[in-house]
Amino acid sequence: MSKRAVIVIDLQNEYTPAGKLPLTGIEAAVANAARVIDDARAKGIAIIHVRHEFAHGEKPAFTPGTDGVLIQPEVAPREGEPVVIKNHVNAFRETPLQRLLDEQNVRELVVVGAMSHMCVDAAVRAAADLGYAVTVLHDACATLDLEFGGVTVPAAQVHAAMMAALGFAYATIRSTDEYLSA
């Protein structure tokens, strides 16, 4: 069996209802992610937290030094759990994430986090391209409504489309309950 790690992507204060980019369903996603993290801690499975910051404050969110960049308390890292700071959508781009995984001989990733259509998507595709077996826990991820061509696409549809796309060729898509009961 391959060594596994849980990757917790961007479950930061910026995505809460009080943040600058509130996500639909973020509370449920964080609650499920917390269950997965607790399970990983109990089983000695590696956990790597990813935190987004815009390096030069060039965007109106994820500004270094603000409360918005902090990881939500329910899923906050404990001592010894690495936190990868990223300045791009893809958690592997210009970060030590792959090195951390390779140093621990990790070959399987379980991904939870935000946003489904951006940072989760980018990390999952990159991980699969790098040869990792990836499982995404769909109910431990969240996103928001998007707009294209004057049409608002509800968050539930954005999320479903992303999970369907990732499940087609990049990852196994499971619920938190399915994962925890396996």
Number of helices: 5
Question: Structural class given helices, strands, pairing?
Answer: alpha/beta
Number of separate strands: 8
By CATH, the architecture is named 3-Layer(aba) Sandwich
**CATH topology (level 3) name:** Rossmann fold
Q: Beta fraction of the residues?
A: 25-35%
Alpha-carbon distance between the two ends? 14 Å
Q: What value does the average pLDDT take? A: 96
Unreliable stretches: none
Q: What is the percent of helical residues? A: 25-40%
CATH level 1 name: Alpha Beta
Q: In which order are the strands of the major sheet placed? A: 3-2-1-4-5-8
Shape: globular
Our count of domains comes out at: 1
Largest sheet, strands/sense/barrel = 6 strands, parallel
Gyration radius, to the nearest Å?
Answer: 15 Å
N-to-C SSE series?
Answer: EHEEHEHEEEHEH
Describe the structure using short key phrases.
182 residues; alpha/beta; two-stranded antiparallel sheet; 33% helix; globular
Summarize the helices and strands and which ones pair or pack.
Layout: E1 3-9, H1 26-43, E2 46-52, E3 83-86, H2 97-103, E4 106-114, H3 116-129, E5 133-142, E6 146-148, E7 151-153, H4 155-169, E8 172-174, H5 176-181
Parallel strand pairs: 1-2, 1-4, 2-3, 4-5, 5-8
Antiparallel strand pairs: 6-7
